[in-house]
Amino acid sequence: MNEFAPRHGRNQPSSMFFWPTADRPVAVRGEGIFIWDDEGRRYVDASCGPQTTNIGHNNRRVVEAMRAQMDDICFAFRSHFKNGPAETLADRLADLGQDKGLTRAFFCSGGSEAVEGAIKLARQYALAKGEGTRYKIISRLPSYHGSTLGALSLTGDPAMFAPFAPMMQIQPKIPAPFVVERPEGESEDAAALRFAQALEDEIINQGPSTVLAFIMEPIGGAATGGLIAPDVYYARVREICDRHGLLLIYDEVMCGSGRSGKYLCAEHWDANPDIIAMAKGLAAGYVPLGAVLARGDMVEAVYDAGGYAHGHTYSAGPLACAAGLAVMDVLMEDGLVANAARQGAKLKAALEGLMDEFPFIGEVRGRGLMLGFDVMADRKKRIPLPPELNAGSEIAQACYDRGLIIYSRRMLDGLRGDHFLVTPPLNVTDEEIGMIVDLLRQGLGDFAPKAAA
Ligand code: PLP
């Protein structure tokens, strides 16, 4: 038992100042898909926190690899020393990125830092090419790219960025491709191309010579609940970026590292991004770790122009990278990426099945185990449930009370109601998928009378 539990138990005031944690139980143990609290209650973690613990909780191989690294050396500063785990992990990412032309990795400590690193690399590459007029980065609305001021300027959520707006340069936004909301008679592909055209229109509106890059999550997470576009969208976006000299950045902080059923989410499409931001599943939350994976020639050009002017104290620390390597070993050796594709298909079909039972489920979205759904008063007309029903928190709480953790979010633009991510670890079994679906059905059932009222 965690020795800290008695003092900081449930309903005890917390000294932490960010989220109110007083009414949450105290997590004391994790194993695989399960977390136990200090009262011995077991929770099925079908969220992986914010889609982070992709190999499940407390995998012994990762814990042992971290312990072994700690016995050798916990920290060595990258300006003073190379270290084996960072070099090897970069090689492994370069091998995985090779087919996409992404062969150089920079390490940091999380998703926001990875996005900042991507922004800085893009800008420095433009400067190296003599394109210093390019500085704007177009992103999508809604979207989430992180909470630091640079990443927040890309985040498509006015409620999040508005308080800080005077302190940063909010970047241009285009609508996220909610193809499901297309007018009657328009095909999915035509709608996807219309959404892609919004990018070109915005580039022209901004002045192409001022636009540096376009950033998007290839499968959307917190802001869009598993939003994925038809294949034509990805190809057309790449084409538009090429036509106007923009870099294409994929934010795979949430959908990457195997969760989508491919190690890099970008592998689902022929089009190649120039930079990928990674974090979360990279070291699966065992330690903080993020990465910027980039085209080798871009990094070379930036080096030739004087070097990559960016970094953090913890960049490429040996302990974080040893954990990342061990997580990668578990993913690859245990076939978890393929398992994510297989179990994800089953879970998606089961979620779609729940649409028959619960008419308030609007749309099931995503690929692999990067899955989500939203809730609507009218599925066909895409009319959200009244906000006062608090469907997101009510359903997530009903599930929580039954021992199932899913991730809920109020849609940021206020137009689309609430949505959920159902994102269990990538080693989830058939039996556990069944357990998740049963508990979810019960949680949705608890809420159903309110939706019908
Ligand atoms: N980008 C995406 C797509 C994310 O989902 C997140 C976090 O949820 C971030 C960036 C920011 O990552 P972090 O919270 O590690 O800073």
From TrEMBL:
Similarity section: Belongs to the class-III pyridoxal-phosphate-dependent aminotransferase family.
Name of the protein in its database record: Aspartate aminotransferase family protein
GO molecular function per UniProt: pyridoxal phosphate binding; transaminase activity
Key word Transferase present: yes
UniProtKB keywords: Aminotransferase, Pyridoxal phosphate, Transferase
Superkingdom assignment: Bacteria
Species of the source: Minwuia thermotolerans
The keyword Transferase appears for this protein: yes
Necessary cofactors: pyridoxal 5'-phosphate
SUPFAM superfamilies reported in the protein's UniProt record: PLP-dependent transferases
InterPro entries: Aminotrans_3 (IPR005814), PyrdxlP-dep_Trfase (IPR015424), PyrdxlP-dep_Trfase_major (IPR015421), PyrdxlP-dep_Trfase_small (IPR015422)
CDD domains per record: OAT_like (cd00610)
